[in-house]
User: Fold this.
Amino acid sequence: MATSSVSKGCFVFKPNFKKRKNSVAIEDYFNKEKNESEDSKLRFETYRLVWQQVKSETERLQEELNKNLFDSLIEFLQKSHSGFQKNSKDWGCQIKLREIPTAALVLGVNVTDHDLTLRSLTEALQNNVTPYVASLQARDCPDVKHLLQKLVSQLMDCCIDVESKEEESVQITQKNTHCSMDSLSSWYMNVTQKTDPKMPGKKRTSSQRQSPPVVLILKDMESFTTKVLQDFINISSQHLHEFPLILIVGIATSPIVIHRLLPHAVSSLLCIELFQSLSCKEHLTTVFDKLLLTTQFPFKLNEKVLQILTNIFLYHDFSIQNFIKGLQLSLLEHFYSQPLSVLCCNLPEAKRRIHFLSDNQCENIRRLPSFRRYVEKQAAEKQVALLTNERFLKEETRSLLENLHVYHTNYFLVLRCLHQFTSSLPKYPLGRQIRELYCTCLEKNIWKSEEYASALQLLRMLAKDELMTILQKCLNVFKSSSEKQLGSTAKRIEDFLAQFQSLDAEAKEEEDTSGSQSKGLQKTDLYHLQKSLLEMKELRRTSKKPTKFEVLREQVVNFMDFLVREHLRPPETQPLHEAVYCGAAHALREHLNAAPRMALHTALNNPYYYLKNEALKSEEGCIPNVAPDICIAYKLHLECSRLINLVDWSEAFATVVTAAEKMDANSVTSEEKNEIIHLQCSVY
Assistant:
């Protein structure tokens, strides 16, 4: 099953099902080489546990963020369907009964997240409104015929009472009938009017259970053709009295697209109500807040990895699902490449694992750059103990992990507090979103930046009401935390609030009396007049006494500056931060940032990079004769790409391939090979 050349033809090798290879355990892939690490299985189990926690939290966040939207949609559907069942003879109601209730759901440009949102919406509607929910895409509906076929096929799978054999027979017969709105209407009447006489005690609490509406979700309305939508809406409006249809249209751009696709005669048949989903940027902020800016999960991202994931989100797809996948990939890469990631778990479990660290793992701790910097700052005796005594090293590692946990707790509390101070400043010198502030704090000492100095200047100009509102928000941040490391900070903020409240709100600033006496009028020139005015201005500035409010405001700003300098140091300053922070930015960029041209060049210039065949290894500048012929031709082309000569190129190619033929006893004859080579070169 081997071929001497890839480009000679397309070969199909059918798998032999009789010979099944033994499946390799997933955790074995954590070993780059055999028997390299003795804790690969434990690292894989830890990765799986952490990822399951992150995944469950992500799903819970998704449900919470969609709850208000889904509740509003369900209320709209129930209210719209109740109008069908009143059977009022009022002229206005009769006109409204000819309009199709339509929910215009603006989902945003993050198209990759729409499927998940609409899937969750379908489940919510089936559980609360109606079992008859169908979802259609534009690619499956090139015309009305295919649209009705898809609608019928999906609705036939829905049944109110699955145990009823009569309804099952109705479904089977209806599948064989012609797909039209008349057949759908008759099917709906038969299914909804069927009742089980054997169960007289079964009561239906609402009329929706007896005749529930039919909900049709058009996932991507912008992609539907105008004719398909017009014809379907016209047909549906004529059968609305016997087939209660409700539309939900997914819109990625703007609601005005409805009027662009549909003329007024058709759009007037729709009773449209607009619903707006949560912005993808707000969704990202929530993900940051619940997954990354918390001590609930031990895994963290350094500034480069976080910047890559954020840039892909902001400049490529706005997809939360892709962001979560990138987070999963970084989590997997961290546990795969970092031997000490075995300590990336909750603090009690990490302390327990430290006791069972092997000698190799202790050496890995000593090799960490952060730990080496920590050792260099210690006394000589302690340095010797850390480098030679395994037991002392484990005790110190346990203490360092506790300090790292306290560092993260204080870090996130102060970060949220600083965000409350700076998020409302003009021009947002430290960013409007907390993720921007977090990335800046991860990268460097934020108090050394010009943006931070500008923010402090603006904070010294805040009014009393603004400052008290910010302090109250900071107090809520500290009180909401279950940790008590910064309990004195919360007490200090309460003292500041009490002092602000004690100030007289109507007190006026003290007038500056010193130096206010104007000099006697005298005849002078312009130069001396300007000089006198500057002297008076400087005298007022230096002799003016600050008010009580200004003094208290300065104390608040200085206190906030102290917290920032004390607790917002970058993670690189903390020993053992490598165990919990993912720093594989290069590997993550290769996997997530697609570079097709670079990948093709690497594959053609160095096939060993992807094929991992030892025979393809070669020194730089050499062309292995066992390489695929397209790689040989490409490398020969690189030698003189602009001055390429087709004859010389083909002769050089033949020389390299002929060298491979002489080494292969089972190869074809040289004459046949030359014919193939010349044929391939003629194609080039």
